[in-house]
């Protein structure tokens, strides 16, 4: 595995974590949205990852040297859990019984997911920085 493979793997992970963080921020921003253009409350979205098949050159290198693979986002799905029912007869979206359908977003879970995405992103930045330092030190050997 050459140093550019390390960069490619870490950059694919950073790209996937950025999409995950974007999804978490969307969930947090809409945690109190009771009416959407599609109708009903906002539904939480979740990101799913899968190991990423590499292009031919990377795949050939991988087959010859190791089984290193990147990661990609395969899909972003809406959570199918039912909305929370909150009693608030004064709310404009309240039903005849006084209950309002609120989004199925758990703010605490979203915060934990956000911290996990941030840590994973930082770990991949650190990996790229370490690989870059290694390459710089290798170039200094020839001086």
Task: Note the topology.
Blueprint: H1 3-29, E1 45-52, H2 56-65, E2 70-78, E3 84-87, E4 99-102, H3 107-141
Antiparallel strand pairs: 1-2, 3-4
Helix pairs in contact: 1-3
Describe this structure in words.
The protein has helices at residues 3-29, 56-65, 107-141, and strands spanning 45-52, 70-78, 84-87, 99-102. The mean pLDDT is 89. It is elongated, with a radius of gyration of 22 Å. The chain has 143 residues and is of the alpha+beta class. 50% of the residues lie in helices and 17% in strands. Strands 1-2 form a two-stranded antiparallel ribbon. It has a two-stranded antiparallel ribbon with strand order 3-4.
Shape: elongated
Please work out how many helical segments DSSP would assign: 3
State the end-to-end distance.
25 Å
The proportion of residues in beta strands is 15-25%
Mean pLDDT: 89
Q: Which spans of ≥5 residues are poorly predicted at pLDDT below 50?
A: none
Q: Main beta sheet: strand number and arrangement?
A: 2 strands, antiparallel
What structural category do the secondary elements indicate?
A: alpha+beta
Brief description of this entry?
With 143 residues, this protein is an alpha+beta fold. 50% of the residues lie in helices and 17% in strands. The strands form two sheets. Strands 1-2 form a two-stranded antiparallel ribbon. Strands 3-4 form a two-stranded antiparallel ribbon.
Q: Keyphrases for this structure?
A:
143 residues, single chain, alpha+beta, 4 strands, two-stranded antiparallel ribbon, two-stranded antiparallel sheet, 17% strand, 3 helices
């Amino acid at each position: 595995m050459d140093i550019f493979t390390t960069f490619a793997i870490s950059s694919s992970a950073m790209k996937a974590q950025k999409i995950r963080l974007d999804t978490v921020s969307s969930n947090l921003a809409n945690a109190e949205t009771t009416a959407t253009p599609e109708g009903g409350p906002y539904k939480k979205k979740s990101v799913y990852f899968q190991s990423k098949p590499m292009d031919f050159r990377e795949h050939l290198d991988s087959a010859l040297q190791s089984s290193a693979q990147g990661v990609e986002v395969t899909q972003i799905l809406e959570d199918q859990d039912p909305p929370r029912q909150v009693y608030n007869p004064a709310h404009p979206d309240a039903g005849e019984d006084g209950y309002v359908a609120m989004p199925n977003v758990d703010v605490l879970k979203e915060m934990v997911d956000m911290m996990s995405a941030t840590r994973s992103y930082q770990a991949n930045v650190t990996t790229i920085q370490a690989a870059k330092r290694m390459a710089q030190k290798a170039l200094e050997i020839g001086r």
